[in-house]
Amino acid sequence: MCLILLAWQAHPNYPLVVAANRDEFFARPTATAAFWPQAQQVLAGRDLQAGGTWLGVTRTGRFAALTNYRDPAQNRQLPSRGALVADFLTGSETPEAYLARIAASGVAYNGYNLLLGDGKRLWWASNVSGERRPLAPGIYGVSNDLLDTPRPKVGAGKTALTQAIDHLPDDRPLFNLLQNDAIHPDEHLPATGVPQDWERLLSAAFVKSPSYGTRSSTVLYQRCDGWITFDEQIWLAGAQRGARVRYRLVVAEVASETEK
């Protein structure tokens, strides 16, 4: 993912609300979100090149999501960070225990932010800063820097999310904020080691270019009675709409709808 916005215990009826965009090269093979045949409790998309994922939930209410930390000078040929999300979703450790276990192996991956939840607690960790901590109730945002770093699209997204959660179960405001393609002024852009034209392109919540851009927009929210809604819009090159999949699940009860 390149933008994750979430509300954790910030609404009386929806303890977890997530709005996220995955930005990637359109040539990278990807599977749309579905329950995995080899791990049928996991609902997530799949990176068909490296085998991991960027965001998912399980029938038991586990949640995991990841963004890459953008620092081209430090990137090396290392294992896919998406494996960390997949391993947590297919496991049973608490977020705290999982993060403690993988802390020593952080150098085996390029920079990342990892968000992990089990329905009772939500944790964030990064191998760049070496931090890991539980999150208090509130509104959070992360793109390709550390959690809540004041990037323009993070700040704008958090403000929009605060307003959008009051409209649930209508999720249109959540998808609207994810489709914000406004480019922010140069004076507000960070210097992350990519050319300035890429800094401009990547400053938008919804990224559009011929070869690289937002591949999927995901809205996930959990009601206080345990029902989880997972809604994913696929985007094709040229910002054309692809398939849209919707799932509702609680424990082992699942209802789904697929739209083409």
Give a description of the structure.
This protein is α+β, with helices and mostly antiparallel strands and 260 residues long. The protein has a single domain (3-259), classed as Penicillin V Acylase, Chain A, CATH 3.60.60.10. The protein is 17% helix and 38% strand. The chain is built from 5 helices and 14 strands. The protein has helices at residues 82-90, 95-102, 152-164, 172-178, 196-202; strands spanning 3-8, 16-25, 30-36, 39-47, 55-58, 63-68, 112-117, 122-126, 132-134, 138-142, 212-222, 228-236, 240-250, 253-259. The strands form 2 sheets. It has a 7-stranded antiparallel β-sheet, with helices on one face. It has a 7-stranded antiparallel β-sheet with strand order 3-4-5-6-7-8-9, with helices on one face. The longest helix is centred in the middle third of the chain and has 13 residues, at 152-164. It starts with a strand and ends with a strand. Residues 253-260 have low confidence and may be disordered. InterPro entries: TANGO2.
Note the main attributes of this structure.
7-stranded antiparallel β-sheet, 17% helix, Penicillin V Acylase, Chain A, 260 residues, alpha+beta
